Amino acid sequence: MAGVTNVAFRTLCRRSGGGLYVSEMVGARGLVEGNATSTLKAAFGPHEDPRSIQLYTVEARETRAAVHLLTGGAAAAGRHPVDHIDLNFGCPAPKVTRHGGGAALPWRTDLFADIVAAAVDAAGDVPVTVKLRIGIDDSHHTYLAAGRIAADLGVAGVALHARTAQQRYGPPAAWEHIAALVDALEVPVLGNGDIWEARDALRMQAETGCAGVVIGRGCLGRPWLFGELHAAFAGEPIPSAPDLGAVVALLREHAALLTAHLGEDTGLREFRKHTGWYLQGFPVGREVRRALNQVSTRAELDHHLAGLDPRLPFDEGVRRQPRGHTTRPKHVQLPTGWLDRGHHGSTPPPTTHPVVSGG
Ligand SMILES: Cc1cc2nc3c(=O)[nH]c(=O)nc-3n(C[C@H](O)[C@H](O)[C@H](O)COP(=O)(O)O)c2cc1C
Fold this sequence. Notes:
By secondary structure, the protein is of the alpha/beta class. It has helices spanning 7-14, 28-32, 36-41, 60-70, 94-97, 109-123, 143-152, 176-184, 198-208, 225-233, 244-262, 264-279, 286-292, 298-306, 338-341, and strands at 22-27, 52-56, 84-89, 128-133, 135-137, 140-141, 157-161, 189-192, 212-214. It has 2 domains: 7-240 and 330-341, TIM Barrel (Alpha-Beta Barrel); 244-311. The strands form 2 sheets. The chain has a 7-stranded parallel sheet with strand order 1-2-3-4-7-8-9. Strands 5-6 form a two-stranded antiparallel sheet. The chain binds flavin mononucleotide.
């Protein structure tokens, strides 16, 4: 997740074992051009194993070059060899779809196939996966055709976020599309959308037959969710949620890791959003929340955290409250004529909803 799953947060999540902890989305072009921000986003800690990166890309040549860099072609030059590459075709942000990227791209099946083929070819033995949404909107589904193309081209798996780009993060994820993709493909399908607690993961697997699940907002402020998932999949008792004392320890450690990675200034600016997620459900008061949301030094952070009652229990009632993106459905911005240029096999019959394009 962009701005979240950097090396600092992954370090906390990885402690729970299991799982494949993927980097935030990194632009292929920035990586190829040696852009400092992209390079930082692609950084891994010395103990991270396996190393998994998500690339954002809109062009086959750049994809090939980025994948070459990542898979060891330039390892001697100290770049970032990785063990897994995921390609992002799910981002609904206007700044991305406006250029035909993210969730808009699979509509252009020719371009999608070129990019995936370039990635799989350049990656060699390193597995490549793709992450899709259902489509652009309910009149323009893309996942079945794109999933089949990707599987034919040799991807190791396909992850489906069961919403359209138009739906953003609003309505409940439509897991039936995950089941449809499982039926359509030979390769493993990973399901994504609305996994807030371990039993959601088990239910998704039971209802859809997916090979695994992808965690989104459920882990924001809760890196320990992965321990719960690990236990649930192993058929073991789910560990109880941490009390405020343990959460405060996580906050401190997260801040320390982020500032070590990004410096105190940027690190704490990036950290502020996490404080609200960690403290969701704990009755710490508006003043403390506001102060934590403005911290600019570690000393300030420690000062505000020191006053909190470590014995406060986690409020199970907030488990399913969305955090991070809560944006409601919104028309998808696309390059002019984008929908006319697609040649797609899985478009459902037109509905009465207008499809907005352009801009
Ligand atoms: C802050 C934030 C950043 C995200 N960044 C990415 C990203 O970089 N790559 C990606 O594939 N999905 C990204 N997502 C989407 C999630 O991975 C996931 O697909 C989505 O939240 C749906 O799952 P959920 O309903 O369980 O949250 C992001 C989501 C949030 C909330």
